[in-house]
Design a protein that fits this description.
The complex is a heterodimer of chains A (about 270) and B (about 80). Chain A is α/β, with parallel strands linked by helices and about 270 residues long. Chain A contains nine helices and eight strands. In chain A, strands 3-2-1-4-5-6-7-8 form an eight-stranded mixed sheet, sandwiched between helices. The longest helix of chain A has 18 residues. The mean pLDDT of chain A is about 95. Chain B has about 80 residues and is an alpha+beta fold. Chain B has a single domain, classed as Translation Initiation Factor IF3 (2-Layer Sandwich). Chain B has two helices and four strands, in the order E-H-E-H-E-E. In chain B, helix 1 packs across helix 2. Classes of the chains: A alpha/beta (about 270), B alpha+beta (about 80). The complex binds zinc ion. Zinc ion binds next to helix 8 of chain A.
Chain lengths: ~270, ~80
Protein backbone atom coordinates (compact mmCIF):
# COMPACT_ATOMS: atom_id res chain seq x y z
CA UNK A 1 0.00 0.00 0.00
CA UNK A 2 1.29 3.45 -0.86
CA UNK A 3 0.44 5.79 1.96
CA UNK A 4 -0.16 9.46 1.35
CA UNK A 5 1.74 11.86 3.61
CA UNK A 6 -1.50 12.45 5.49
CA UNK A 7 -1.98 8.73 6.03
CA UNK A 8 1.63 8.36 7.18
CA UNK A 9 0.95 10.95 9.82
CA UNK A 10 -2.47 9.63 10.79
CA UNK A 11 -1.35 6.02 11.15
CA UNK A 12 2.29 6.53 12.23
CA UNK A 13 1.69 5.20 15.75
CA UNK A 14 0.33 2.01 14.21
CA UNK A 15 3.02 1.68 11.55
CA UNK A 16 5.84 1.80 14.10
CA UNK A 17 4.35 -1.10 16.06
CA UNK A 18 6.15 -4.33 15.08
CA UNK A 19 2.79 -6.18 15.13
CA UNK A 20 1.18 -3.72 12.70
CA UNK A 21 3.64 -1.99 10.37
CA UNK A 22 2.74 -0.77 6.90
CA UNK A 23 1.46 -4.22 5.97
CA UNK A 24 -0.84 -4.46 8.95
CA UNK A 25 -2.15 -0.97 8.31
CA UNK A 26 -2.87 -1.99 4.72
CA UNK A 27 -4.83 -5.01 6.03
CA UNK A 28 -6.86 -2.66 8.24
CA UNK A 29 -7.56 -0.45 5.22
CA UNK A 30 -8.75 -3.48 3.23
CA UNK A 31 -10.98 -4.81 6.01
CA UNK A 32 -14.77 -4.77 5.82
CA UNK A 33 -16.55 -4.86 9.16
CA UNK A 34 -20.30 -4.86 9.76
CA UNK A 35 -21.73 -3.80 13.10
CA UNK A 36 -25.14 -4.75 14.46
CA UNK A 37 -26.33 -1.79 16.51
CA UNK A 38 -25.18 1.84 16.50
CA UNK A 39 -26.02 2.31 20.18
CA UNK A 40 -24.03 2.01 23.41
CA UNK A 41 -21.54 -0.55 22.12
CA UNK A 42 -21.67 0.30 18.42
CA UNK A 43 -20.65 3.91 19.07
CA UNK A 44 -17.27 3.23 20.71
CA UNK A 45 -16.53 0.20 18.53
CA UNK A 46 -17.21 2.22 15.37
CA UNK A 47 -15.35 5.24 16.72
CA UNK A 48 -12.14 3.28 17.31
CA UNK A 49 -12.41 1.22 14.14
CA UNK A 50 -12.89 4.42 12.14
CA UNK A 51 -9.90 6.00 13.88
CA UNK A 52 -7.86 2.87 13.11
CA UNK A 53 -8.65 3.25 9.40
CA UNK A 54 -10.88 0.21 8.80
CA UNK A 55 -11.69 0.55 5.11
CA UNK A 56 -15.40 -0.25 5.15
CA UNK A 57 -17.62 0.01 8.19
CA UNK A 58 -21.29 -0.91 7.80
CA UNK A 59 -23.77 -0.01 10.55
CA UNK A 60 -27.13 -1.70 11.01
CA UNK A 61 -29.67 0.03 13.23
CA UNK A 62 -33.32 0.90 12.74
CA UNK A 63 -33.65 3.49 15.52
CA UNK A 64 -33.37 7.26 15.69
CA UNK A 65 -31.29 9.25 18.18
CA UNK A 66 -33.04 10.29 21.41
CA UNK A 67 -31.84 12.52 24.22
CA UNK A 68 -31.82 9.53 26.59
CA UNK A 69 -29.19 7.86 24.40
CA UNK A 70 -26.59 10.57 24.92
CA UNK A 71 -25.65 9.39 28.43
CA UNK A 72 -23.63 6.60 26.78
CA UNK A 73 -23.93 6.61 22.95
CA UNK A 74 -20.94 8.81 22.23
CA UNK A 75 -21.20 8.99 18.44
CA UNK A 76 -24.48 10.93 18.68
CA UNK A 77 -25.06 14.47 19.94
CA UNK A 78 -27.74 17.11 20.53
CA UNK A 79 -27.63 18.14 16.88
CA UNK A 80 -28.41 14.62 15.61
CA UNK A 81 -31.41 13.94 17.87
CA UNK A 82 -34.22 12.67 15.63
CA UNK A 83 -31.86 11.45 12.91
CA UNK A 84 -31.42 7.75 12.20
CA UNK A 85 -28.61 6.48 14.45
CA UNK A 86 -26.76 5.08 11.45
CA UNK A 87 -26.70 8.53 9.82
CA UNK A 88 -25.69 10.27 13.01
CA UNK A 89 -22.84 7.79 13.54
CA UNK A 90 -21.82 8.07 9.88
CA UNK A 91 -21.37 11.83 10.28
CA UNK A 92 -19.25 11.36 13.39
CA UNK A 93 -17.03 8.60 12.01
CA UNK A 94 -16.50 10.31 8.66
CA UNK A 95 -15.57 13.55 10.41
CA UNK A 96 -13.00 11.62 12.43
CA UNK A 97 -11.55 9.80 9.42
CA UNK A 98 -12.61 10.49 5.83
CA UNK A 99 -10.57 7.44 4.69
CA UNK A 100 -13.32 5.20 6.05
CA UNK A 101 -16.30 4.28 3.93
CA UNK A 102 -19.27 4.16 6.30
CA UNK A 103 -22.31 2.25 5.02
CA UNK A 104 -25.49 3.23 6.92
CA UNK A 105 -28.14 0.48 6.92
CA UNK A 106 -31.36 1.67 8.53
CA UNK A 107 -33.16 -1.66 8.72
CA UNK A 108 -34.51 -3.96 11.38
CA UNK A 109 -32.40 -7.07 11.30
CA UNK A 110 -34.34 -10.31 10.86
CA UNK A 111 -33.94 -13.89 9.76
CA UNK A 112 -34.93 -12.79 6.26
CA UNK A 113 -32.21 -10.18 5.71
CA UNK A 114 -29.25 -10.96 7.99
CA UNK A 115 -27.43 -13.42 5.72
CA UNK A 116 -27.61 -10.98 2.81
CA UNK A 117 -26.45 -8.12 5.01
CA UNK A 118 -23.33 -9.85 6.33
CA UNK A 119 -22.36 -11.66 3.12
CA UNK A 120 -19.80 -9.15 1.82
CA UNK A 121 -18.10 -8.48 5.16
CA UNK A 122 -15.08 -10.10 6.82
CA UNK A 123 -16.04 -9.64 10.48
CA UNK A 124 -19.35 -9.09 12.29
CA UNK A 125 -19.62 -7.09 15.53
CA UNK A 126 -22.67 -7.59 17.71
CA UNK A 127 -23.47 -4.61 19.90
CA UNK A 128 -27.18 -5.27 20.15
CA UNK A 129 -28.84 -5.17 23.53
CA UNK A 130 -31.41 -7.93 23.27
CA UNK A 131 -31.43 -11.71 23.22
CA UNK A 132 -33.42 -12.25 20.00
CA UNK A 133 -30.82 -10.29 18.02
CA UNK A 134 -27.88 -11.88 19.86
CA UNK A 135 -29.07 -15.39 18.96
CA UNK A 136 -29.99 -14.42 15.42
CA UNK A 137 -26.56 -12.88 14.80
CA UNK A 138 -24.81 -15.89 16.38
CA UNK A 139 -26.71 -18.40 14.26
CA UNK A 140 -26.24 -16.40 11.06
CA UNK A 141 -22.47 -16.07 11.66
CA UNK A 142 -22.13 -19.80 12.37
CA UNK A 143 -24.09 -20.64 9.21
CA UNK A 144 -22.14 -18.13 7.09
CA UNK A 145 -18.77 -18.94 8.72
CA UNK A 146 -18.15 -15.30 9.69
CA UNK A 147 -16.04 -14.35 12.73
CA UNK A 148 -18.21 -12.59 15.31
CA UNK A 149 -17.11 -10.29 18.13
CA UNK A 150 -19.97 -10.19 20.57
CA UNK A 151 -20.42 -7.79 23.48
CA UNK A 152 -23.10 -7.32 26.11
CA UNK A 153 -23.67 -4.84 28.91
CA UNK A 154 -26.11 -4.49 31.80
CA UNK A 155 -25.99 -2.22 34.85
CA UNK A 156 -22.31 -2.40 35.96
CA UNK A 157 -21.31 -5.57 34.15
CA UNK A 158 -20.25 -6.45 30.67
CA UNK A 159 -18.88 -9.36 28.70
CA UNK A 160 -17.04 -9.96 25.45
CA UNK A 161 -16.39 -13.08 23.44
CA UNK A 162 -15.05 -13.86 19.97
CA UNK A 163 -16.74 -16.57 17.97
CA UNK A 164 -14.76 -18.20 15.15
CA UNK A 165 -17.15 -20.66 13.52
CA UNK A 166 -15.66 -24.12 13.04
CA UNK A 167 -12.82 -23.41 15.47
CA UNK A 168 -14.17 -22.16 18.79
CA UNK A 169 -17.42 -22.07 20.71
CA UNK A 170 -20.55 -20.20 19.68
CA UNK A 171 -23.14 -18.39 21.80
CA UNK A 172 -25.40 -21.43 21.88
CA UNK A 173 -22.57 -23.62 23.19
CA UNK A 174 -22.79 -21.35 26.23
CA UNK A 175 -26.58 -20.99 26.51
CA UNK A 176 -28.59 -23.18 24.15
CA UNK A 177 -31.74 -21.06 24.18
CA UNK A 178 -32.48 -17.41 25.01
CA UNK A 179 -33.78 -16.95 28.57
CA UNK A 180 -37.58 -16.75 28.86
CA UNK A 181 -38.76 -13.14 28.40
CA UNK A 182 -39.93 -12.79 32.05
CA UNK A 183 -36.38 -13.31 33.34
CA UNK A 184 -34.92 -10.50 31.26
CA UNK A 185 -35.17 -7.04 32.83
CA UNK A 186 -37.70 -4.85 31.07
CA UNK A 187 -36.56 -1.63 29.42
CA UNK A 188 -37.19 0.56 32.45
CA UNK A 189 -35.32 -1.79 34.74
CA UNK A 190 -32.34 -2.09 32.45
CA UNK A 191 -30.08 0.64 33.73
CA UNK A 192 -26.49 0.86 32.59
CA UNK A 193 -23.53 2.92 33.74
CA UNK A 194 -22.83 5.24 30.81
CA UNK A 195 -19.12 4.53 30.63
CA UNK A 196 -19.53 0.73 30.66
CA UNK A 197 -20.07 0.44 26.88
CA UNK A 198 -16.82 2.38 26.46
CA UNK A 199 -14.90 -0.36 28.26
CA UNK A 200 -16.67 -3.26 26.57
CA UNK A 201 -16.77 -1.57 23.15
CA UNK A 202 -13.05 -0.82 23.46
CA UNK A 203 -12.40 -4.50 24.09
CA UNK A 204 -14.55 -5.45 21.09
CA UNK A 205 -12.71 -3.03 18.80
CA UNK A 206 -9.41 -4.51 20.04
CA UNK A 207 -10.63 -8.02 19.17
CA UNK A 208 -11.63 -6.87 15.69
CA UNK A 209 -8.21 -5.31 15.03
CA UNK A 210 -6.43 -8.46 16.28
CA UNK A 211 -8.53 -10.59 13.91
CA UNK A 212 -7.75 -8.26 10.99
CA UNK A 213 -4.02 -8.27 11.79
CA UNK A 214 -3.87 -11.98 12.67
CA UNK A 215 -1.95 -11.08 15.84
CA UNK A 216 -2.36 -12.12 19.45
CA UNK A 217 -4.92 -14.49 20.93
CA UNK A 218 -8.56 -13.68 20.26
CA UNK A 219 -11.17 -14.48 22.96
CA UNK A 220 -11.96 -17.71 21.14
CA UNK A 221 -13.36 -20.33 23.50
CA UNK A 222 -13.37 -17.73 26.24
CA UNK A 223 -15.75 -15.22 27.75
CA UNK A 224 -14.21 -12.12 29.32
CA UNK A 225 -16.39 -10.60 32.04
CA UNK A 226 -15.93 -7.15 33.54
CA UNK A 227 -17.43 -5.86 36.75
CA UNK A 228 -17.16 -2.08 37.01
CA UNK A 229 -18.06 -1.95 40.73
CA UNK A 230 -15.28 -4.39 41.71
CA UNK A 231 -12.92 -3.21 38.98
CA UNK A 232 -12.44 -6.86 38.12
CA UNK A 233 -11.98 -8.83 34.92
CA UNK A 234 -12.65 -12.56 34.86
CA UNK A 235 -12.01 -14.94 31.98
CA UNK A 236 -14.12 -18.07 31.75
CA UNK A 237 -13.28 -20.92 29.42
CA UNK A 238 -16.15 -21.84 27.11
CA UNK A 239 -15.58 -25.20 25.50
CA UNK A 240 -17.26 -26.03 22.24
CA UNK A 241 -20.40 -28.05 22.94
CA UNK A 242 -20.31 -31.22 20.78
CA UNK A 243 -24.13 -31.26 21.03
CA UNK A 244 -24.57 -27.53 20.27
CA UNK A 245 -27.87 -27.04 18.40
CA UNK A 246 -26.23 -24.79 15.80
CA UNK A 247 -22.43 -25.27 15.55
CA UNK A 248 -22.07 -29.04 16.16
CA UNK A 249 -21.51 -31.70 13.49
CA UNK A 250 -25.23 -32.49 13.37
CA UNK A 251 -27.07 -29.27 14.22
CA UNK A 252 -30.76 -29.32 15.12
CA UNK A 253 -31.16 -25.64 14.15
CA UNK A 254 -30.55 -25.35 10.43
CA UNK A 255 -32.76 -22.35 9.72
CA UNK A 256 -32.66 -18.92 11.32
CA UNK A 257 -35.20 -18.15 14.05
CA UNK A 258 -36.67 -14.79 15.10
CA UNK A 259 -37.51 -14.78 18.82
CA UNK A 260 -39.48 -11.58 18.92
CA UNK A 261 -42.35 -12.19 21.27
CA UNK A 262 -42.26 -10.47 24.63
CA UNK A 263 -38.74 -9.09 24.46
CA UNK A 264 -37.71 -5.54 24.83
CA UNK A 265 -35.97 -4.62 21.62
CA UNK A 266 -34.88 -1.08 22.41
CA UNK A 267 -31.40 -0.59 21.00
CA UNK B 1 33.92 7.13 4.94
CA UNK B 2 33.16 3.47 4.49
CA UNK B 3 30.97 2.46 1.60
CA UNK B 4 28.72 -0.54 1.85
CA UNK B 5 26.79 -1.49 -1.25
CA UNK B 6 23.09 -1.11 -0.61
CA UNK B 7 19.95 -2.44 -2.29
CA UNK B 8 17.80 0.60 -1.52
CA UNK B 9 18.51 4.19 -0.46
CA UNK B 10 16.27 6.67 1.28
CA UNK B 11 16.87 10.28 2.17
CA UNK B 12 14.89 11.31 5.22
CA UNK B 13 16.56 14.68 5.78
CA UNK B 14 14.13 17.25 7.08
CA UNK B 15 11.94 14.65 8.79
CA UNK B 16 11.60 14.37 12.56
CA UNK B 17 10.49 11.53 14.85
CA UNK B 18 8.37 9.47 14.49
CA UNK B 19 8.26 9.96 10.69
CA UNK B 20 11.97 9.23 10.35
CA UNK B 21 11.38 5.74 11.71
CA UNK B 22 8.04 5.35 9.90
CA UNK B 23 9.76 5.96 6.53
CA UNK B 24 12.71 3.71 7.41
CA UNK B 25 10.41 0.94 8.55
CA UNK B 26 8.21 1.09 5.44
CA UNK B 27 11.38 0.92 3.31
CA UNK B 28 12.58 -2.19 5.20
CA UNK B 29 9.16 -3.82 4.83
CA UNK B 30 9.32 -3.46 1.06
CA UNK B 31 12.71 -5.25 0.88
CA UNK B 32 13.82 -8.91 0.83
CA UNK B 33 15.59 -10.64 3.71
CA UNK B 34 19.36 -10.03 3.60
CA UNK B 35 19.06 -6.82 1.58
CA UNK B 36 20.68 -3.62 2.82
CA UNK B 37 19.00 -0.25 3.27
CA UNK B 38 21.02 2.96 3.18
CA UNK B 39 19.55 5.92 5.03
CA UNK B 40 20.70 9.54 5.00
CA UNK B 41 19.28 11.61 7.85
CA UNK B 42 19.87 14.91 9.59
CA UNK B 43 17.78 14.61 12.76
CA UNK B 44 20.19 13.94 15.63
CA UNK B 45 17.68 12.14 17.82
CA UNK B 46 16.89 9.79 14.93
CA UNK B 47 20.57 8.91 14.56
CA UNK B 48 20.21 7.24 17.96
CA UNK B 49 16.59 6.11 17.89
CA UNK B 50 16.42 4.51 14.43
CA UNK B 51 19.31 2.09 15.07
CA UNK B 52 17.82 1.19 18.47
CA UNK B 53 14.31 0.66 17.09
CA UNK B 54 15.61 -1.34 14.12
CA UNK B 55 17.51 -3.66 16.50
CA UNK B 56 14.35 -3.99 18.62
CA UNK B 57 12.47 -5.06 15.51
CA UNK B 58 15.08 -7.72 14.75
CA UNK B 59 17.02 -5.91 11.99
CA UNK B 60 20.81 -5.62 11.89
CA UNK B 61 22.54 -2.24 12.13
CA UNK B 62 25.67 -2.58 10.00
CA UNK B 63 27.11 0.90 10.18
CA UNK B 64 26.39 4.41 11.43
CA UNK B 65 28.56 7.37 10.59
CA UNK B 66 28.40 11.15 10.80
CA UNK B 67 29.37 12.21 7.30
CA UNK B 68 29.34 16.01 7.66
CA UNK B 69 28.18 18.80 9.97
CA UNK B 70 24.53 17.90 9.61
CA UNK B 71 24.11 14.41 8.18
CA UNK B 72 24.39 10.78 9.22
CA UNK B 73 24.69 7.72 7.04
CA UNK B 74 23.13 4.50 8.32
CA UNK B 75 23.13 0.96 6.92
CA UNK B 76 20.55 -1.59 8.01
CA UNK B 77 20.35 -5.21 6.90
CA UNK B 78 16.89 -6.75 6.81
CA UNK B 79 17.12 -9.86 9.02
CA UNK B 80 13.45 -10.24 9.89
CA UNK B 81 10.14 -10.02 8.05
ZN1 LIG C 1 -22.19 -23.71 19.37
Amino acid sequence: MNFTDEQLQRYSRHIILPEVGGRGQAKIADAKVIMVGAGGLGCPVGFYLAAAGVGTLALIDNDTVELSNLQRQIAHNVHTIGLPKVESAQKTFTALNPDVKVVPLKVRISKDNILDLIRDYDIVVDGSDNFPTRYLVNDACVMAGKPLVSGAILRFEGQVTTIIPGKGHCYRCLFEEPPPPGLVPSCQEAGVLGVLPGVIGGLQATEVLKLILGKGEPLMGELLMYNALNSSFRKVRVPRNPACPVCSESPTITELVDYNEGYCTLQ
Amino acid sequence: MSRISSDKKIDIKGLVCPYTFVKAKLAIESMELGQILEIVLDHEEASRSIPRSMEDHGQKVLHLEKINDSDWLLYIRKDKE
